[in-house]
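Technical annex, item 7. During the second reporting period the consortium partners agreed on a shared format for inverse folding records so that results from different sites could be compared directly. Each record opens with the tokenized structure and is followed by the designed sequence. A conforming record, contributed by the partner at site C, is shown below for reference.
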């Protein structure tokens, strides 16, 4: 990406003026359309849209398991006679759909658009991610098995252990009890984590995110229109990026200690926003805690802390709600579950609430800059959305 593209790019051209989210969980009582309507109409109300059929000019959807493609969104919301697009980019799907919407508004193609992320894997009989990770160094892998490979290497290199992973799970469960729309509202202890059923060493049940159904939505518009909507404190897109790496399952340079796409996407998004010290300039983060080790590595890959220092920061509470840089303030994937296409937009929903001071019992004080992070694919894809106040 050229300097001209970055310097004259996305920053502050696009504002989020409304967000919505349905309750995540095993939503047997709802179809995909019901969850989409719940999330979208909350976003409409949040933005003060009187006639969304006229005001929404395009729709960008993200879903990994759609049953009818864009029709699920268009028909449920009666948004016909306009562009409706569907993005699929595995765990990065929701953020990628948001990225397309942001680009369309910034380019001047549309004034106001709707972004919807949704998935309902429970209707497919899926208790966990329905993927086979092919192989890691020739060995068949599940997602838990693949991510767990990072643990032994990191533990040996930097001295962390299962106790640090357990503290991440405890933190996220606590935060989830404060989020009305999370699936799991259960306080746990480190002892609970350590003694739970082993899934793939060192991951026990509480180290792993659940699968769930869910939908989330955001309404975005041009900066000069932002304050014509209901609220006078719109949230602005400071940077948006997606990056890929070589497949880590076959990349001989992958060392199991960092995720290359996160590092690359972070470099790009920080350049867009003019961020030189993310630990000081970013005030909270929603990261892709599909497993506790993934969250730990993301602290370092996003440049929040020095490489190998996660153990001391976890023990000192850096990433807790009252810490220096709260992470997964709503409980993350750990307590919301992971309806794949919805997760990235759900993170944006939480960051908007935090930046506008609407997060109630989990509110981070004086937050003006927030980032969300999705890691997915082989995993070789990372998507980041950096949001801030004016």
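Designed sequence (site C submission):
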């Amino acid at each position: 990406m050229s300097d001209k593209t970055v310097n004259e790019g996305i920053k502050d051209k696009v504002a989020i003026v409304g967000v919505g989210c349905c309750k995540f969980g095993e939503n047997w009582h709802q179809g995909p359309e019901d969850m989409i309507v719940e999330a979208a109409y909350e976003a409409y109300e949040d933005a003060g849209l009187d006639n969304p059929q006229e005001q929404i000019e395009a729709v960008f959807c993200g879903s990994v398991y759609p049953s009818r493609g864009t029709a699920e969104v268009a028909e449920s919301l009666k948004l016909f006679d306009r562009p409706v697009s569907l993005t699929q980019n595995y765990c990065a799907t929701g953020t990628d759909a948001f990225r397309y919407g942001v680009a369309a508004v910034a380019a001047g193609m549309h004034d106001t658009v709707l972004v919807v992320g949704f998935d309902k894997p429970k209707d497919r009989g899926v208790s966990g991610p329905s993927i086979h990770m092919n192989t890691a160094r020739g060995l068949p892998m599940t997602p838990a098995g693949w991510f767990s490979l990072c643990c032994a290497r990191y533990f040996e290199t930097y001295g962390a252990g299962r106790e640090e992973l357990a503290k991440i799970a405890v933190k996220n469960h606590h935060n989830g009890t404060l989020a009305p729309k999370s699936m799991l509202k259960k306080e746990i202890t480190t002892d609970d984590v350590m003694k739970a059923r082993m899934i793939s060493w060192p991951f026990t049940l509480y180290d792993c995110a659940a699968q769930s159904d869910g939908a989330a939505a955001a309404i975005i518009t041009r900066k000069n229109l932002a304050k014509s909507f209901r609220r006078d404190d719109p949230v602005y897109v400071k940077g948006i990026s997606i990056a890929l790496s070589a497949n880590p399952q076959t990349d001989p340079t992958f060392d199991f200690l960092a995720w290359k796409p996160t590092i690359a996407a972070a470099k790009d998004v920080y350049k867009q926003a003019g961020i030189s010290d993310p630990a000081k300039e970013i005030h909270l983060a929603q990261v892709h805690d599909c497993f506790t080790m993934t969250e730990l590595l993301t602290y370092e890959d996003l440049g929040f802390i020095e490489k190998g220092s996660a153990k001391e920061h976890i023990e000192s509470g850096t990433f807790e709600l009252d810490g220096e840089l709260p992470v997964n303030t709503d409980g993350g994937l750990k307590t919301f579950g992971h309806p794949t296409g919805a997760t990235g937009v759900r993170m944006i929903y939480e960051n908007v609430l935090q930046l506008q001071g609407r997060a109630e019992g989990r509110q981070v004080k004086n937050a003006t800059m927030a980032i969300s992070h999705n890691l997915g694919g082989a995993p070789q894809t990372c998507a980041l959305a950096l949001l801030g106040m004016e």
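The longest helix spans residues 32-47. Residues 3-125+211-228 form a domain with the Peroxisomal Thiolase; Chain A, domain 1 fold (CATH 3.40.47.10). All partners now use this format for quarterly exchanges.
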